[in-house]
Amino acid sequence: MRICVYCASSDAAPAGFRDAARRLGELLAADGCTVVYGGGSSGSMGALAAGALSRGGEVVGVLPRFMADLEWGWPGKAHAAPLDAQGLRMEQGSAGWRAGPGTAAGGNGTFNMQYVEDMRERKHRLLAGSDAVVALPGGCGTLEELFEAITLKRLGLYFKPIVLLDTDGLFAPLTGYLERLIDARFMNPEHAAMWQRVATPEDVLPAIRATPDWRSDARAYAVPR
């Protein structure tokens, strides 16, 4: 499976959030999943990638060029990639920029960095082709990504599971707010099934497997009744 993971870059948050991210990366890699995330090297982003790579996993980072210029990408020293003759972004390997498969990065894992022009393209690239979304606690950027995925699911444009890893109960107020929106008829009761909230990294894969694809008639109840 190709799992899109939304998570934070903050190193200032308590260590437990990074521990959960690393454990999630380990579990996804051990299950043979490809981890697709925002390409960062710090906070939960870096911990997630390190965990997956330590278990021989495949990690795909998606990084806007301005973040690469600021050296925010894994492993903290990449610059914006030049274009090859076909106009495709190249990768930074040990011998410099090159096209082709990813470069080995820690353990027996493989890391592929994909450089994009802006945040909009990053969000599209993260979600496209994914078999599930997993959101970890994070700031406004993480929430923006999560709410876009939920909105696309409501509109019948994304059909895969969306799982919230509720480390330290941080997602509980958010899902409570969404439930209040349903009660107030800004959303329909069916929409409560668009996401699942789980307590531990070990719960994530079972939740994904237990969640069927979203209904094909999603647009029939997209508008509140």
SS element count, helices? 7
Please provide the ordered H/E string of secondary-structure elements.
EHEHEHEEEEHEHEHEH
Estimate percent helicity: 25-40%
For this structure, what is the CATH class? Alpha Beta
Mean pLDDT: 85
Low-confidence parts, pLDDT < 50 over ≥5 residues? Answer: 76-105
What overall geometry do the principal axes of the alpha carbons give?
globular
Q: Could you tell me the number of beta strands?
A: 10
Using only CA atoms, what is the Rg?
Answer: 18 Å
CATH topology label: Rossmann fold
Task: Output the structural class.
Answer: alpha/beta
From the N-terminal CA to the C-terminal CA, the straight-line distance is 35 Å
Please give a handful of descriptors for the protein shown.
10 strands; two-stranded antiparallel sheet; 225 residues; alpha/beta; 34% helix; eight-stranded mixed beta sheet; globular; Rossmann fold; 7 helices
